[in-house]
Please model this.
Amino acid sequence: MLNRIDRLARVAVVVAAAALVSATSSFAYEGGAVSGGGTIKGMVKLNGTAPEPEVLDVNKDKKVCAVTEKKSNELVVGSNGGIRYAVVSLTNISKGKAFPEGESVLDQEGCEYLPYVTVVAQDHELVIKNSDGILHNIHTYSEKNKPVNRAQPKFKKKIKETFSEPEMIKVTCDVHGWMRGWVAVADHPYYAVTDENGAFELTDVPAGDYEIKVWQEKLGESTQKVSVPGGGEATVTFELAQK
Amino acid sequence: MSKADEEKKSYASVFLLAVALLLVTSVWIVWDDQISRRPWKKYQYEFSQTQIERAKAEVSAEEERLGADEEYQKVLADLEAARDKTTSGATASQLSELASKENKARVAFDDAEFNLRLVKSQIEEAWYELEHAQLAHADTTSQRAHLDELNAKKAEVEEEVAETLARLNQILSEQDEIRSVVDSLEKKKEELEGAKSRLEQKVDGMVIQVGPFDFPKIPKIEQVVLNEFDRNAYNQPVARVDRCTSCHAGINKDGFEDLPNPYKTHPDRRLYLGKHAAEKVGCTPCHQGQGAAVNSAEQAHGHVKYWLDPMYEGDNVQASCIGCHADVRMDAAEKIALGEKLFEQVGCIGCHLVEGYGDLPKIGPYLGRISAKVDADWLVDWVKNPHEYRPRTKMPNFYFDGDEAEAIAGYLLSASADESEAWLGEHDLPSGIDSGNAALVAEGERLVDSLGCRGCHGLAPGESPALLGEGKDIAPNLSNIAEKTNARWAYHWVKDPRGYSPVARMPSLRLSDQEAKAIVSYLMTLGEAATDDSATRARLLEADNVVIGEALVRKYGCAGCHNVPGMESESRIGVELSVFGSKPLEELFFGNRTDIPHTWEDWTFNKINEPRIYETERIEQVMPHFALAESDIDAILTFLASRQEGYVPKEYRPSDYDNEVTLVEGRRVIERYNCVGCHVVSGRGGAILAHYEENPTLGPPILTGEGAKVQANWLYGFLQRPVPLRPWLEVRMPTFGLSDEETAAIVNYFAAEEKIDNPYVHVDLASLSPEYVEAGELLASDDYFSCWTCHQQGDRKPEGPKEGWAPDLAMAYERLNPNWIVDWIKDPQALMPGSRMPSFYDFTDDSPDGPDDVLGGSDLEQVKALRDYILTLHAPTGAVAQPAVATDAEESAPEPAEMPSEETAAADSSAASEAQG
Amino acid sequence: MSKWEETKRQITESQVWQSIFRHGYDDTPGNRVQMVSGNVWLHLHPSKVRRHAIRMRFTWCMGGITFLMFLVTVVTGVYLMFYYRPTAEYAYADMKYLEFDMPFGMFMRNMHRWAAHGMVIAVWLHMFRVFLTGSYKPPREFNWVVGVILLVLTMLLSFTGYLLPWDQLSIWAVTVGSNMARATPLLGYEGPFADWTGANPIYDARAFLFGGGEIGPHTLLRFYILHCIFIPLVASLFMAVHFWRIRRDGFSGPPV
Model:
């Protein structure tokens, strides 16, 4: 199961983080060809000992939802201290690579949100799937975007939603109170979600100086400066402490 | 001097002097009268000039734009070319040929027409002859023949007319064809110039053209006559005339917000002058002042001696809102709204009678059994200076010295002794209250946090969930309650407030014994516990002390705010303030103060700020000190300024005035019991929701739109006896023990808020279509929308813990307005943003959201079907039977959730089965 | 004769001209006499006067000034009459409108008041002058009496006019002034011998003045008529007698 989620997460990162059609809409961000771009690699670590993730209480629709044990993803730390599901992005880039083509998908399967963090470009459709065959609803909590609460009964396998402002949006289900997920609305393609080792990679970054930011659900935000050499690699390590 | 010389003496110099004086004087008279004393001419003239300048600037800007506009330039060029073509060359000669042909054709047509008319009149003549002959019983054949002849001729002539007309039209159309290019280009040019010509017309409307010069319009008096607005000294209606716009020429025109007064546009013009049409309402009904005066700004604004209504300064203009609007709780009238609220609720009405506010219940607590409640030492300290114990209490400080305080305390204890004894006899201290039991205290604290006490009470020093103005608490702060009272009283109070005080505003939260004990245990840890007060009591109850105390209580008018035993029929001791706003300056007593400016505003502000400020050696003042914040005093001042003599006639008040009165009466009840501490009502309130920011659905529901949502009858019953409706809530709707009038006022308030005239609903189940009910049942089932995965259905509960449940739909028949159910299902997020109920449909686009195979895939019909089905769920006997639906809910029985007490569980199930309040 | 002369002659010798202008303006003694004696406004004056008669320091023109003031009040008063309604509901408001709204209203009202004050002052000064120059001695005794009557009428004009603005000052001034009337013997209800005539608060000299027991709308109307019609008419009659007497008896100053 973990592998499947892991694979899905990677696919989602590659597809969603870079997947956008920019032809019809005009962004403040300009996407195009990048030559001599560099890569930013790095890791997000936890400063301190990781707490044991809470086991979620699955108390409804157990036939579909309680097949496997569910644990909270609000602070998942790997054996190397790397924090999973942190979102790393550049804050001040206005020109770079184009959003790649493809769909952004958020799936509800086994009464959890897969992937836990989905990246979708602003003004680009997010496809929300209901693979469970029972009633779910998408209830978002956001300030910059209009909050949404849409039902997705079993006969509606796919619904679509679009967000226009860059923001980290919390997603819950009112029918199944333990479900939690996040949608990162991206204003440019340089967004990455850390994997189980806390590692991330941003490719084809035009050479220059940038500010890079990390967001984690429980530990908050942190920024650093990074200098990307043309055609080369820059490494960034974030260390977040528990509050 | 000789006679001749005398006669020759010339008086020319005298006459010259006289004439010169006369001339100068005449010029001066005319100048003074027509110019100096008519400043409005200057203002209007200057405004007109500015207006014209700006309009002309707009015209030139538009011209510039056209100059740069390619399309327009092209049209101009083409037009010229086309025109040239028609004035020279082949086309021109064609046109002139056609022109001459046209003339000839016209002449021919006119001739033919004329002939027709001639013939027609001849026919009339012939008819006359015929009829004349008929009447004379003579022979009519020749007349008839003549007539026939003429008719034939007429037919001929008509033909000719038609012919000539056709020929003429043909020539005209030929001409048009040739000119069509020019015509269409001209039309296009006019179209493109549309904006410019409109602007030019605007300028033309503003000026007077004299040859090549244009002048602004001649200034004239602009006035609005309000018929029968005022009453003269003989109580006859007389008109009021407002001439403010003679100087304030731009006040009702957009676009001049940047100019200084008097040229400026009215702030928020669309709101104020839009809703209060200047022609209907004028200016002075809101701003006061001497509307008819035009000779100087000072006179017009009423800042002259003997004008009793000078213009309001700044925010005080809101004082006039309440003269027309019963309901001033609107965004534009915040100051007067606050002022009215403070005046009612801080306690001014306890001593001062104001017409319209005379019947309100007493602000202060019931003192009939005070002896059973409070510690005697505490009582003395409290009477001496309430603000020391509770800084934000509404009770003012009377500056009593120690002896006076003891006397008053003694009287109160003595007068309430009998009632208190009786009450104590029936209310023992129960066992089980223990402030030393940490677990019990913790439980008590938890209950206090979750049941909703924090909607009204602050429990830490400085905590204020329910503020009146800037710094007065609506409900007492309990952070040091142990100093004041004891566990026995607190227990019985918390269980049943009305059992102690018949006028208590504190509601019952339907606590179980155990809950109450835990809460009291917790409360008694707040503050230093009171020590034995029997010695103090004995001293206070000495007869002499009590007698002095009674006199003091009467003198200072305690009975105005409190129900004082033995003083039920005492009247208010303060001055009547019904027309205080009209009080002339001469009647205000400034005492010996020389440092206070002599204006009504300054007198009043200082009076409220420091009530005994005008005291002198021989003149005592008894008004106590309220310690109000400056902004609050300002607000009260605005309210007092609104207490004027005279009234606005009904025709000038808003048309929904009666509706407003209903709103005001309802709101009084809602604010008295602090419903707005927990609920958002009409977009305001809900202080307790600050504790539920993370998940607002755990807080008390928002009541905006309640009038359209629930059935009035159900709401009435619910308010009288609340039951839990939302199982996931820990906070509890308390039982307030409202009287019938109070309940009715609240129900009417909600209906009035939605402007509903008839709040009664009758659901006729027999008229529901069985097809729809069946479809609704299908839609609600697990095959489609799975409503029962969250919603309760009478005895059938959903899976999972109570926190995940939704309201019981079996109550819908009695509780909800069927129209609202449709609106809700269509888009719940629109009616209650952030609600846990998701949107199943999206009616903003045409794409269907429901299943295609139910009711032909029509979203609206499906919603109606769901509504119809829901209404059948708990109907009186004889209605549609409930279907047996096998759902997951039945298979996996819900685990019994932890019930805090038996009582609450009983309330829950009784709610489900009775479905009525 | 030039064209201009010719035209002039034609005009002045036409029937129209001759019927209007009875005499020429050449400086002939005849014309001089005609100027005064042939004019309705001036013919009260003698055509010739003694030199001493125009000695200003004898008369100071006080009589003439009084009459001038009277004329001014009449003219301005007529203007005021157009806009003033003597009813309780409107009196004050109309006065305010005259003061602030009417073109030249303030001017006319102020002129009226100045002229009224001027008339009173001038008439007293005139009276003093007449006394100090002995101009009351025979044969001029009766004229003195007429003058005193005119003095009283002048005072009454002021008194009645004062009520017309209908403000606090007016009403109380009239109250105080007329309270004297109730103390009149026989005719006032608070005076001696009131019971002989049956004088009571609503039927005595004071009530006669008021038109009722108290000052009210009826008083205002009454005073208005007194002020605008009755007293001016009576005063005009007496003025006619007064001026005629002066003319007949000649100026009183000694010959120079």
In short: Residues 224-311 of chain B form one domain. Chain B has 37 helices and ten strands.
